[in-house]
């Protein structure tokens, strides 16, 4: 099986976006807050972050970090995640958000890190403690 992708997109109305993804596309809802919802899109993780028109920075708080929206990435296993961290550290690549654990001790516990490519696109790499919890709420 290929690793599932992760894509976070800005939406201007979270209720309408959730209705579309759940009721029109048939996606199952996963974790959520009052400003974001993640969905199982054919085995991939798509996260809708509500971004108001006046939000010109497009950073949204998630578990204590300001997360850029939009961003994309891939879900790795722990070994792949650790190998990538080591490779990036050896190359002295600057992390946008240093490797850390998000949602510690909760459903969906995961290792995460963020980078920016040379054009400023944000990339998130994550590894779940249990991939079975990818869409747990």
From TrEMBL:
Domain (VOC) ranges: 3-128
PROSITE patterns in alphabetical order: VOC
Cross-referenced Pfam families: Glyoxalase
SUPFAM superfamilies, sorted: Glyoxalase/Bleomycin resistance protein/Dihydroxybiphenyl dioxygenase (SSF54593)
InterPro entries per the UniProt record, alphabetical: Glyas_Bleomycin-R_OHBP_Dase, Glyas_Fos-R_dOase_dom, VOC_core
Matching PANTHER family: PTHR39434, VOC DOMAIN-CONTAINING PROTEIN
Protein name per Swiss-Prot or TrEMBL: Glyoxalase-like domain protein
């Amino acid at each position: 099986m290929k690793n599932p992708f992760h894509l976070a997109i800005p939406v201007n109305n979270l209720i309408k976006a959730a209705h579309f993804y759940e009721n029109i596309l048939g996606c199952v809802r996963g974790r959520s807050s009052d400003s974001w919802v993640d969905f199982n899109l054919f085995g991939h993780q798509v996260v809708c972050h509500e971004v108001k028109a006046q939000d010109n920075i497009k950073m949204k708080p998630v578990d204590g970090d300001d997360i850029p929206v939009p961003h994309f990435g891939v879900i790795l296993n722990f070994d792949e995640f650790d190998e990538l961290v080591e490779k990036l550290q050896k190359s002295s690549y600057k992390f946008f958000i240093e490797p850390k654990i998000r949602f510690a001790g909760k459903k969906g516990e995961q290792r995460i890190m963020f980078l920016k490519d040379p054009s400023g696109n944000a990339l998130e790499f994550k590894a779940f403690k249990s991939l079975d919890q990818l869409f747990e709420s």
